[in-house]
Amino acid sequence: MGKSVSFPGIKGEKPKKKINLSPIEVLILTQLRSRELRNNGEPIGQYGYEMIQKLNELFAGSWKAKSGTIYPILSKLEGTKKLITGERKQSPLGPVKRVYILEDLGRKCIDYIIYERFEGDIEFVMRYMNMLTPFLVRQDNVTNSDEIFEKMMSIPTKSIKIAKEEAVTIVDEDLRNRKLESIKNQLKQFLNEID
């Protein structure tokens, strides 16, 4: 799910700028942009440690973000790729920490990735789920197959649960209501197709 993005040139650069991003870089930029959008589009930074915690929450145990992995990526996003800026700020709890904020190019890059390629990413997830189907029909471990099947069938309810979580901002509240309405309509349509 890494991305390669080309943009029209910006001041002082060649007409095209191609940026290659790893999946983790995409997630970091998405996380920073999501925070901005929840803050009505105003830039809002994030400490590296906080970013690591949020990534681990996102991965839910399937992968563990560590400082030895994330800080070099942040350094590359700042130095080589110039998509973020790290500013040293006094932490409310004591020491000076580095706060990472999106640069305009980083903002344009992640917006392009999310808005222009979203359907392809969803298609990938659906095909991945379909690829897991043979694991459900294995005869040698029926208990495990049933467990996997139950987890896959719980995806819609997990989506509803996530959508119903307490909203952080007015933007989240509106989005939550739209997601719930969409899920409700999709479930109705699906149930009608079953009948």
Would you give an account of this structure?
The protein has 195 residues and is of the alpha+beta class. The protein folds into 2 domains: 3-109, Winged helix-like DNA-binding domain superfamily/Winged helix DNA-binding domain (Arc Repressor Mutant, subunit A), CATH 1.10.10; 132-194, no CATH class. It contains 8 helices and 5 strands; from the N terminus they run E-E-H-E-H-H-E-E-H-H-H-H-H. It has helices at 23-38, 48-59, 67-78, 104-131, 133-136, 142-153, 155-164, 170-194; strands at 3-8, 16-21, 46-47, 84-90, 96-102. The strands form 2 sheets. Strands 3-5-4 form a 3-stranded antiparallel β-sheet. Strands 1-2 form a two-stranded antiparallel sheet. Strand 1 and strand 2 (16-21) form a beta hairpin. Helix 1 (23-38) crosses helix 4 and helix 7 packs antiparallel against helix 8 (170-194). The radius of gyration is 20 Å and the shape is globular. The model has no long low-confidence stretch (mean pLDDT 79).
With strands numbered from the N-terminus, the spatial order across the biggest sheet is 3-5-4
CATH superfamily of the largest domain: Winged helix-like DNA-binding domain superfamily/Winged helix DNA-binding domain
Residue stretches low in confidence (pLDDT < 50, at least 5 long) are: none
User: How does the helix and strand content classify structurally?
Assistant: alpha+beta
Q: Main β-sheet: number of strands, strand sense, barrel status?
A: 3 strands, antiparallel
Q: Give the C-level CATH assignment of the largest domain.
A: Mainly Alpha
Question: Number of DSSP helices?
Answer: 8
* SSE order, one letter for each helix or strand: EEHEHHEEHHHHH
Shape: globular
Radius of gyration: 20 Å
